Amino acid sequence: MGLRTGEQYVEGIRNRKYVKVYVMGKPVNDAMASPFLKPSVLAFKATFDAAFQEDTKKLARAYSPYINEEVNRFNHIHQGPEDLVAKVKLLRRLSHKVGACFQRCVGWDALNTLYIITSKIAEREGKGVYRDRFINYLKYVQKNDLALAGAMTDVKGVRTLRPSEQPNPDAYVRVVEERDDGIVVRGAKANITGVAVVDEVIVMPTRAMTEKDTRYAISFAIPLDTPGVTVVVGRQLNDARRLEGGEIDGLPYMFNHEGLVIFNDVFVPWDRVFLYLDWAWAGALVEVFSAYHRQGYAGCKSGLGDVIIGTTYDLARQLGIQDRPHVQSKLTEMVFLNETMYSAGLTASWEGIKLLSDGGWWVNPMYANVTKHLVTRFPYEIARLAHDIAGGLLGTAPSEFDLKNPELRPLIEKYLQGVPEFTAEDRLRMLRLLENVSISAGYLIESIHGAGSPEAQRISMARLYDFQLAENIAKNLARIRVNIRLPEKVEPHRRSDVEG
Questions:
Q1: With 278 labelled, which of 3, 13, 22, 146 sits at a CA distance of 20 to 30 A?
Q2: Domain for residue 430, yes or no?
Q3: Is residue 470 part of a domain?
Q4: Three-state DSSP class for residue 312
Q5: Quick check: is 184 in a domain?
Q6: What is the pLDDT of residue 253?
Q7: Which residues are part of the catalytic machinery?
Q8: Structure confidence at residue 482 (pLDDT)
Q9: How many domains does the chain have?
Q10: What is the pTM assigned to this prediction?
Q11: CA dist 140 to 52, 135, 299, 389, Å?
């Protein structure tokens, strides 16, 4: 089949027998029937609908050489820099349609990561079983156009201790039993985007391992609807508004969620195991995945930035201040910050690296880390400038239920109106949109901690930059040491561990 419609995706996650999903302490059987989870389903649905909509179809589809037909790009293995660029562009465009995280990127990055790592293990160690299993799984995912969650972040327990040193041995997902037909795993993964509304979960190690951590060096995929799996959906700012039955305050159309996914002695058949006790490969897997995911933030965060800039400009027009020099200066600064993030992601894409003889296109790791480090800073400044222009009413506006009250509506319409061509309802809708997008976990908290916290990118950039070569360049110019031979490559960057 290769491509599912949004409605087919929704139907596919409706009938579940085993997984336990909890929202605010209560079990949820049908995500579409839950006011809390329905916006997440609709956000995921948008990634499927994009493959059939005229303005996104070319970006949202790609030809797969593995099943010889078109697939949804979210399940595609990158075949060149053009695919990496298309990823960033698709994420920006979809942000315009969703206004939130659409939750499908982590599973996509997991697929591309495992394609590279299982192929490298086969190439370096002659162990082709992982690659064979993964390719079969990839074909299954592409033919059925599955919605995937990527699960990397363990709960980690005591941060200064390695997995094998933890007082709670289940602080990292581990193997607790090996059987003839598969393995049994136990543990939990935290902050997993969209996990309650996916078809399958791909689990990966979250850090480099030592030989003592062998039983934690595992990667596998299972249907979410597997015995022993429990999902506890996390809370976010303003999330209870979704339960109020309104259509302005809570932005109930599309939104994202994150959750804690618990594996309580879950059985995984061997054909779904892609890394097993191979502790030496855990670090490379994390590096490949992290760079992919950091590159992608250029698309979704700049797309949400467009929403914030457009909303802020509209609110300025409603107040009649859009042409004031200080407002123009702030709007231009927002554009500069937004396009800088986007440009870095495109650079990471066009400067991509081929890691395998048959493809395996990876992003440029330096520019991917630069991209994400910009994302840890710029969304906060964009949001600050937006809040400055929007005014204090952003945090104190009456509710939509006040507006719908026949007694209050004429008063609110009178006192919240600015420029006459706009209504008070226009203003309230834009204020709520700005509030829900710019102060969200998906735009702010995720910008800091998604794909690794800021220090993780700083460590990566320091490792990748060749300070000694830069020093030699300076010495050559200062005539301290003359005629130092410079490498052919222009940038003073070291090869990453993965490239090596």
A1: 146
A2: yes
A3: no
A4: helix
A5: yes
A6: 86
A7: 101, 105, 193, 258, 293, 297, 300, 446
A8: 66
A9: 2
A10: 0.95
A11: 21, 9, 27, 49
